[in-house]
Amino acid sequence: MSNVSALQDDAKSRPKTAAGRLSRLWSKNRSETNAAGYIFISPWLIGFLLLTVWPIAQSFYLSFTEYSLLNDPVWVGPQNYANIFLNDQLFRTSLVVTFAFVLIAVPLKLFFSLMVAMLLNKNLKAMHLYRTAIYFPSLIGGSIAVSVLWRNMFSLDGYVNHVLGWFGIQGVGWISNPNTSLGTLILLSTWQFGSTMVIFLAGLKQIPSELYDSSSVDGAGKTRQFFHITLPMLSPVMFFNLVLGVIGAFQMFTSAFIITKGGPVNSTYMYALFLFEKAFKHYQMGYASALAWILLLIIAVLTGINFLVSRYWVFYESEGGKAK
């Protein structure tokens, strides 16, 4: 009887033992797989920690210090932030100029990019050549060479005034005039529409043609189709371009630095240019770090507002309605 009981107990324990072996084997294989994965991503992970996370942490610390690169950082607490908000007139000026640039340049760029994308969304011969030619300026859009070219075009004796002279029109100093200097930068930003246009074009390609065919049968014209089909179906792409456009506009630096140097009379004194001068002209690295964190906070708040407001106008087809 005791032998029978021993056999039964042994039979019951075998599945548990086999399951335990399989579990240990699975855990071992999984650990080896995870270890291999971490080894493969370790170069990127090390670079991310050393070149991204650590500088961000250092910048946050330096924003509470007085630091000039030549001396050790001296802790001053929130004094940099207090001086920025209470005593720095250039901070307020650069903020006003940057917000004006963003409020005008971003909508113009979105509108112009969408219009060009709709024109290029046609079944015409050699359309790929037209798309390439229109996108080409964006390949060199943010370069110093383009900024120098733009400065030569809109200077008092530049190409624009030279062409206007053919028609008897007296040109002005577009860059040296405070009333038009910011407009030249806005025009340059709008001209660099290629990447935004390509994204819009990809979105237009995803709109089912059946929607336009059905609406045509119901008597809808081009204008009604645009507002009731194209814009709602393209709203996620528009939202994406809007968020990236706002972030990029707040960081605009090269054009202001090369073309106008922030002048005349600070009419193009962008926030990024102000930050750059504090850091590398006046060597106030702690102050500049505080400015950088303020810029980060502004962009984060505006991006959050865009996401909150998007639920009222962004249409997601997969959800059968507007964003939740």
The CATH topology of the largest domain comes to MetI-like fold
**What's the SSE pattern?**
HEEHHHHHHHHHHHHEE
Order of the strands making up the biggest sheet: 1-2
Based on secondary structure, the structural category is mainly alpha
Helix content: over 70%
> What's the story with the biggest beta sheet?
2 strands, antiparallel
Unreliable segments (pLDDT under 50, ≥5 consecutive)? 11-15
Number of domains: 2
- The CATH class of the largest domain is Mainly Alpha
CATH superfamily of the largest domain: MetI-like
Number of helices: 13
- Report Rg: 29 Å
What does this structure look like?
This protein is 73% helix and 2% strand. It is globular and about 70 Å long. The protein has a two-stranded antiparallel ribbon. The protein has a two-stranded antiparallel sheet with strand order 3-4. It has 2 domains: 2-62; 85-322, MetI-like fold (Orthogonal Bundle). Residues 11-15 have low confidence and may be disordered. Helix 3 (89-120) packs antiparallel against helix 10. The protein has 13 helices and 4 strands. The chain is mainly alpha-helical and 324 residues long. The N and C termini lie far apart (69 Å). The longest helix is centred in the first third of the chain and has 61 residues, at 2-62.
